[in-house]
Amino acid sequence: MGVFLIWYSISKLSPADIQSIKTSFKTANYWWVVLSLFFGILSHLSRAYRWQFLLEPLGYKPKFANSVMAVLIAYLLNLFIPRSGEIARAATIKKYENIPFEKAIGTIVAERVADVIMLFSITGIAFFLQTELMGSYLFKENEGSSIYLKIAFFVLVPLTGIVTYYLLKKSTHPFIQKIFKFIKGLIDGIKSIITMKKKWPFIFHTVFIWLMYVLMFYTVTFALPETTNLPFAAIIVAFVVGGFSMALTNGGLGTYPVFVASALILYNIEDNPARAFGWIMWTAQTIMVIVFGGLSFLLIPIYNRLRHP
Hints:
This protein has helices at about 1-10, 15-25, 30-55, 65-80, 85-95, 100-140, 145-170, 175-195, 200-220, 230-245, 255-265, 270-305. It is mainly alpha-helical. Helix 3 (about 30-55) crosses helix 4 (about 65-80) and helix 4 (about 65-80) crosses helix 12.
């Protein structure tokens, strides 16, 4: 699907469009991209460190280096096989730290719950910041409409969620029950985080990880003159759109650049610089994952042989 989307998006470009995008790539300031990758590395280190807060109550204290390399290997495999990264991460830590596979998977699921909460929280911020833009489409001349959208979002969404939860709970349909179990799993994950011994360090690292993600995105805006003065709302909205697009194909292949560009165009960024930004951002992230994930795959057995000669 990702390859098809790349072909389709390129086939719609004129020779002048392609040349314009190439020019943006050539003239981009890649020092900002390097800084972005630094924030990305910090997020991976923090994710590996956060994992230890979930493993320690189970009686396990893996070496930080093994945790880091397991996380990086997971990201690498997710580029090629959807959701394989979580399995690989648990299998890697089992092999090198003798942590039972099912327990490792359980901690990874709890991590994912925290990440889903953060993504939804940032999505809520994006909606809050973008209500004026949405209001201009929905209400045209009606001034002050954005405040009604904000009220509707923060009142109706939680209410709808509660009603939906109880409706799903009463349904006996197998598919509905799967959805209910997923939601219940999220709730149980939240409860486990709240009751954990080191919940505040865990929460700190969760916020830190997502702050690094936003900074990764933000710093790349300075690489192109057309995106240098983007408002904060545009950055958050494009970040959220890009985040959701990553779930559609492996590593956002084909989807991430298109979705991010579409979001930036809403804020009067010209089509070709917006496309160039999306591709620069995606390419940088992907190269980082391939390089560090590949190195981790090669180095983790060597590191552990040196530990246990």
